[in-house]
Every structure is written in C-alpha cells, then in structure tokens.
Amino acid sequence: MNLTGIANAQTVAVTLSNVTDEFSQTLPDTAISVSFLLGDASGNGIVNASDVGLAKSQVGQPVSGSNFREDVNANGLINSVDVALVKSKVGTALPP
Known about the structure:
Layout: E1 10-16, E2 30-36, H1 49-57, H2 80-89
Antiparallel strand pairs: 1-2
Helix pairs in contact: 1-2
C-alpha cells in the first residue's frame, strides 16, 4: 500500500477493503491505526539512545524482517546515514 503525505510522528487510520482470507472469502472493511515515527528502531513510540544503539548495531548487516526498522531511509542498506537520521530524531515521540 502506497501512502503519501504522511508527516512524521503521527498515527493515521487506514481502512482495509476487499481483503480475502485463505478460503477466498472477502472480509468486511476494517479500520486499523498505523503509526509513523522516523528513527523509532525499537518500535516503542519514542526515539532515544536505545534506537541509536540498535541502528549502530546493524550497520553493514543485510536488511531483513528482523532489522528493517534500522534502515531508516529505506534504501536497502543499514549504514551511517541511518544512524545519523536516528540521532537527528532523538527526543521525538508519537502523540499520546
């Protein structure tokens, strides 16, 4: 799903439509909340020193399902640019 115009540090509602299950039955429309916080490598809703440490620990590693949050600029590489982006966002958090 392509989302555009989403600002950093916000939660948006997305309605899923025409989703089918494993039996090819169409499920009812369902609204879900999705949060966006640049640099939140831990996924806890705040960017802090732990996130910087996580990004640093993955520098040079291939992006996978377990470390994709550390690829902050989503270019397929985890490097010093990602660490710098996380550092630049320290102190930001999702609204309560």
